[in-house]
Each structure stands twice: as C-alpha cells, then as structure tokens.
C-alpha cells in the first residue's frame, strides 16, 4: 500500500509538480501561503496537472474506444433487453464521448437501429456522466474510494434511469425523423497506425474543446480556495444544510462543462467543508443535465419524454447527494 500511495502521489496527484510550482511562486517574490501566492500556485499547478493527465488519458481511452465504434456498440446491444441490457449500455457509455452534446448523435443512431428506449437512455445518461478518465482524474484530486464511488453511483443513475424510462412506454415520444435516420452497416477495421492517429486527433479535438472550461474551473477553484472564507461557504452549502444538494443541482444545470472543468471547483468546495454528496450532485448536474445538452435533446424527443428524463435524472442525483452527505465520513 505504501508503494501504491507513493505512485498515486507522484503520478496522479503530482505532488512533485505542486512543490515545483510553489518554489517557482516563491522565486518570483510571492508567498505561497498568502492569498495571491496561493491562488497563483493553485491555478498553475492544477492547470498543468489536469492538461497532462487529460492528454494522456484521452489518448489511451480513445485508442480503446477505436475498438468500439457506434456500429459495433449497436451490434453488442442489439437484441438485448432488460436490466442486463441497460447495465451493458451504461458500461459501454463509459467508453464513449466526454460530453452530453456529443452523445446525442449516438443516441439517434441507437434509436434508429431499433434499440429499446431503456437501453438508449441508459447509454445517454452514462456517456457524459461516467467515463474512464473521470476515475483517474477524481483519484488525482480526491482519493480512489471517492473516484470509484462516483463511478458506481453514476452507473446506478444510468441503469435505474433508463429502466424507469423504458417501463413508462414512451417510445412514441421520440421525434419521427429519428427513426428514419439511415443506419450504417459494419464498421471498417482500423489498422494500428490508424488507431494511433485517431487517438492523437481525439486529444487535439477534446483539449481544444474543453480548455476554456478547465481554465474557468481552475480559476473559480483558486478563488474559492484562497479568497472565500470557509465559514461563508459552510453557511451556504455546509453538510448540515438540507438545501445544499438542491442548490448545487440548480447551480449546475445552467452550466456547460466536462467533468474536467468541474473538478477544480469540487476540490476547492470539499476543502472548504462542503459535503461530498453536495459536490458530487453539482458535478453530475453539470455533466448530465447541462442546459445546452437538454436543448439539443429537445430536438430529438418530445417534451413529455424530455421532462421525464430530466425529472428521473434529477431525482437520482438528489438522492445520491443526500445519501453521500450522510456517508461523507466514510470517504474523508
């Protein structure tokens, strides 16, 4: 365990980088213990760490993802139904795009291919909410138990949410054009070099897409960490406040960011005494219920189904937030 802890600190948390940045901040005449110096250290360290991890993880995961194109994923899910199919769809969602908006085209393809609504919604919820990169990034900021707990509850939300939507029999609430979208056949086999090129291109594309959100998230995190008094945060979002989880969800929904942009904010909030459940609820609301993704989803489903989807996922997130607030002492 000591070797694992050392590797986790050096490779994921990059404590050596934090020390190096702290020394650099001191070298330019700023005190890392001061508000300004601490903010600069937090910002520079988190930005560098997140982009290093992001690039490495996206490359590795995209290489794996190249083995699971939409055609193969549809084939794996085709003909399946029930809880097992929803579970498989949620698990496959962890290998697919990193934001809810880019999951919509896959949702259209699955629906056009005739997959059950329960399966497609389990996939749609899981895809932005949980991915392999989130496990590593959460572990780099918090701990492995918290990272694994986040992934577990995210999969539960996806599986249960898809199951409930499927049981409601709302197949007629999908836009008519979706079922007439042409479905491509077998996916072309990629060579090793093509997979490497695909993984590299995904790194460039995703980093280009998320870098503003990462900078904004780290900036907000630095401000919370060094400028907002802990008693102010505690008064608004303290673990003992019943309203903290609903407020976190309401704040998260209008935002649009990947999990990469929300992690620095979550890190700062936990450091100020905000309950783990409140922070997880905020992250889940941002990634699964962002307003832009709901607007895009409205193009492919009718209002009753959109309201049902939003309500089911919101109730799931609220429940998880409240449960984890009651269990925070298990993880921190």
From TrEMBL:
Membrane topology: Multi-pass membrane protein
Keyword Secreted in annotation: no
Residue intervals passing through the bilayer: 42-63, 106-126, 132-160, 210-230, 242-261, 273-297, 303-324
Keyword Membrane (UniProt): yes
Pfam families per the UniProt record, alphabetical: ArsP_1
Coiled-coil stretches: none
InterPro entries linked: DUF318, UPF0718_permease
Cellular compartment(s): Cell membrane
Keywords: Cell membrane, Membrane, Transmembrane, Transmembrane helix
Domain of life the protein comes from: Bacteria
Family classification: Belongs to the UPF0718 family.
Protein's UniProt name: Permease
Organism of provenance: Gemmobacter nanjingensis
């Amino acid at each position: 365990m000591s070797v694992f802890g050392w590797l986790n600190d050096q490779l994921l948390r990059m404590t050596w980088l934090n020390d190096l940045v702290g020394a650099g901040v001191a070298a330019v005449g700023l005190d890392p213990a001061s508000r300004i110096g601490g903010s600069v250290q937090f910002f520079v360290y988190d930005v560098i760490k997140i982009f290093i991890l992001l690039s490495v993880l996206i490359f590795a995961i995209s290489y794996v993802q190249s083995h699971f194109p939409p055609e193969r994923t549809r084939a794996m899910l085709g003909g399946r139904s029930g809880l097992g199919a929803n579970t498989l769809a949620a698990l496959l969602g962890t290998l697919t795009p990193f934001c809810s908006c880019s999951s919509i085209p896959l949702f259209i393809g699955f629906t056009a291919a005739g997959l059950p609504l329960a399966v497609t919604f389990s996939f749609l919820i899981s895809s932005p909410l949980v991915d392999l990169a989130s496990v590593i990034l959460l572990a780099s900021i918090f701990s492995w138990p918290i990272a694994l707990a986040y992934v577990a509850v995210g999969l539960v939300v996806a599986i249960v949410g898809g199951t409930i939507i499927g049981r409601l029999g709302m197949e007629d609430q999908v836009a008519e054009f979706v079922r007439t979208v042409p479905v491509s056949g077998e996916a072309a086999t990629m060579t090793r070099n093509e997979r490497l090129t695909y993984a590299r291109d995904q790194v460039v594309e995703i980093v280009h897409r998320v870098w503003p959100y990462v900078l904004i998230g780290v900036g907000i995190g630095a401000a919370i960490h060094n400028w907002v008094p802990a008693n102010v945060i505690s008064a608004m979002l303290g673990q003992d406040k019943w309203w903290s989880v609903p407020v976190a969800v309401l704040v998260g929904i209008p935002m649009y960011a990947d999990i990469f942009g929300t992690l620095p904010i979550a890190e700062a909030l936990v450091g100020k005494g905000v309950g783990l459940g409140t922070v997880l609820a905020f992250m889940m609301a941002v990634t699964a219920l962002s307003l832009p993704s709901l607007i895009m989803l409205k193009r492919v489903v009718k209002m009753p189904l959109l309201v049902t989807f939003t309500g089911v996922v919101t109730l799931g997130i609220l429940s998880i937030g409240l449960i984890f607030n009651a269990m925070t002492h298990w993880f921190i």
